[in-house]
Amino acid sequence: MTAQLESQLVVGAILFVLGAIGFLTRRNLILMMLSAELMLHGVAVNLTAFGRYHGNASGQVFTIFVLTIAACEAGLSLALILGLYQRRKSLDVHLWGNLGEPNLPQMSVDDGMRMEPQHPQGMPVLTPAGAMPTSASAAASNKI
What we know:
The chain is mainly alpha-helical. Helices cover 61% and strands 0% of the residues.
């Protein structure tokens, strides 16, 4: 293999791996879609590199098909994401697990997935807007 082919394959592999990591670690639907597009473009770079290395146009032809499918996937998924957002007002993937039929069991978010705020011992905690404070200092201030 030549150095140019190896560098093109490395770039394609890096694009694919970054897309796979982004798809597996993100919970936002738009970022997941963009990560899938990144993976498809990594494959397209590798296809053109192998086509050029072997001296035929088959890699470029496959790349045209991959880019066409990527464009169709982007259009359809964006339309679905906009429709889903209008329904739930959120793009979090875990909120969409309960879209099934009413008689099917509902999925629940694993408690390990929820990020609860961690407060160090002895530090004051601010009360969220609209909620009544429950600390001893709030009880003391109610007596005044």
